[in-house]
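Dear Dr. H.,

I hope your travels went smoothly. While you were away I took the liberty of generating a structure for the chain from your last submission, since the lab meeting agenda had it listed for discussion. I wanted you to have the full record in hand beforehand rather than looking at slides cold. The sequence, exactly as received, is reproduced here:
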Amino acid sequence: MGRIRKILVSQPEPENNKSPYFDLATKHNLKIDFRPFIHVEGVSAREFRQDKIDMSTHTAAIFTSKTSIDHYFRMAEETRTTIPDTMKYFCISEATAYYLQKYIVYRKRKIFYGNGIIQDLVEIMNKHKDEKFLLPISAAHKEEIPLLLQKNGFNYTKAVLYRTECSDLSDLVDVNYDILVFFSPSGIKSLFQNFPEFKQNETKIASFGAKTAKAAEEAGLRLDITAPKPKAPSMTMALEDFIKDYNKNNGKS
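The corresponding predicted structure, in token form, is as follows:
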């Protein structure tokens, strides 16, 4: 086997030119392509109405991601729901809270945010127990958050506003990469949905996170690179460690 030359990262291409992926490509003379294996699709207003959820009766919204914000305001527009200025917004992190500026006048609204941990946000919400909360969420969501809200006695409604779908990757059928990089179980699912006969052979598989690694192994894939690890907390660091060792042992040609 020769050196590692081509890598496919199953995410959108970074908008920032200073991305460590570009540094990695330059340093090791690699071709790194980016291609999302999954995409988010919004639930239609018709589907949403079947759940009989009235957005206008809620006095607060809980946002765990920027995606949930996008689809909350999209659904409000599609259902012609007016969101009052008195609405309270509880966001998982400061970055998520600032994203609200895309839709509202930030300084004139009641906005609260945590430090990225749902338990921390719940502590803030405990001071607002009289609110009726709406939780915009994906169809395939972790039950941790709804269960935590239920445990703490909040009056809340779970609103499924979007879902994750496998992207069409048919144009990659004849393209070969030395390393495929995955970040979610959905990405692994998309690989086999698009290429049911996929054989790993000498292709290296890189996975980020325990759940992605588990999904890869359950799919019968051989994991060659995993992150995060103590010495490689990011995927780019894990890739670099692997590539340096691999290319050293397999020659430069």
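Two observations you may find useful: The CA atoms of residues 199 and 221 lie 9 Å apart. The chain has a mean pLDDT of 92.

With kind regards,
E. W.
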